[in-house]
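Work package 3, deliverable 3.1, input record:
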Amino acid sequence: MKEIRFFYVPEAGKVQELPTEEATHALRVLRMRTGDEMYLMDGQGVFYHAEVGMTTNKKCFYHIRETLPQEKTWRGRIHLAIAPTKMMDRIEWMVEKATEVGVDEISFLNCKFSERQQIRIDRIEKIVVSAMKQSRKAWKPVVNEMTDFTSFINTSRQGTKFIAHCYQEFKRDDLFRELQQLDVDEDVTVLVGPEGDFSADEVKLALTRGYRSISLGNSRLRTETAGLMAVTMAQITKRKE
Amino acid sequence: MKEIRFFYVPEAGKVQELPTEEATHALRVLRMRTGDEMYLMDGQGVFYHAEVGMTTNKKCFYHIRETLPQEKTWRGRIHLAIAPTKMMDRIEWMVEKATEVGVDEISFLNCKFSERQQIRIDRIEKIVVSAMKQSRKAWKPVVNEMTDFTSFINTSRQGTKFIAHCYQEFKRDDLFRELQQLDVDEDVTVLVGPEGDFSADEVKLALTRGYRSISLGNSRLRTETAGLMAVTMAQITKRKE
């Protein structure tokens, strides 16, 4: 049985040619030839069944055989905003896993106790695209540039907003229970802090902006594990049958 | 504020000396001295508040000030049996994350389509201990040597047993919903297959041994993500308030 190959082609329905990197992969690595079958994903909800058309040394054209609109497998939008970890590989695996599990948007926060102020969004994008292809997600998660905490929470957002933190002095509800009580179509945003947590002032500020104070359970989780836990909880409560 | 240091000392209540590696870490890296405070975890449910006693070049003795029995934070035992991935780093992070999230036992399966037949249990043990310390788990997850699939499923086990797979021809129930319907104190074992899944014969055999056929949802998950998802679902349904 020949393996089905998926390629990420933004605007796949409008162009007739694989993007450079995907073309190189198709021609050099997979050695695909005219007439070979392939699937294209536009990252916006549509798969295309296609076949390789003309090829040159570096270019790979295609013909679309069939347009296959996909249905979203969960309800509402899941947005994770997280302070990147000091070790880049930890946040990278979180991004890969969150994409596999199912997330709509990932933002990176620059907080008072952040151990990393910069992040290479091009690397993150590559990981997201690769995980999206591997797990056959029809929608590419949106990845946002690093934002200051204050500017992030001052931006108005649809849906219900949560801030996960470890301060005992602010009453914290359990995220999973809160999610179960929401309308399933409700959009959610969850904030996860850096290794040293949000500052108490950041938590207070978020509360004044309508963020709900939550806990992810009684386990002491690393930042990247907390991020994935938040996405997983949202996914479990929002996925379709 | 001085950071609280945790050390893993099996039988901490019976011996009076840190194991070699922990002693090196305490003396060489943390430069701890006589009278310094420390916490010991025996991996069997007890923390000890202790202080450094006599030290030599390589040895670190301690006095216990207080014995602090811990309460388990979830009900029933969670056992994950998984085929290790071809890439060792993938199964290693899964082990780290499963320990953080909360698991009681991890077994490794040698299956028909396994891409890895051997695993260095000493490396896995180190990762488990490190994650247990980092996440302050009072119980060390049990780690078992690689076992053949058939011999694993022929061993009788307490509680409810599940096998996660991707075959459409066997009816699959949703693991999360099944877990929610169990008595919260029930022990659970979940089997997760290799990159190429279990063979159909392996699934059939498991069904005859009382394993229930389950799915982890409608996402296409990598082996290591599936393992963590199973543990997370069990944890969410079994954790105490």
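Chain A has seven helices and eleven strands.
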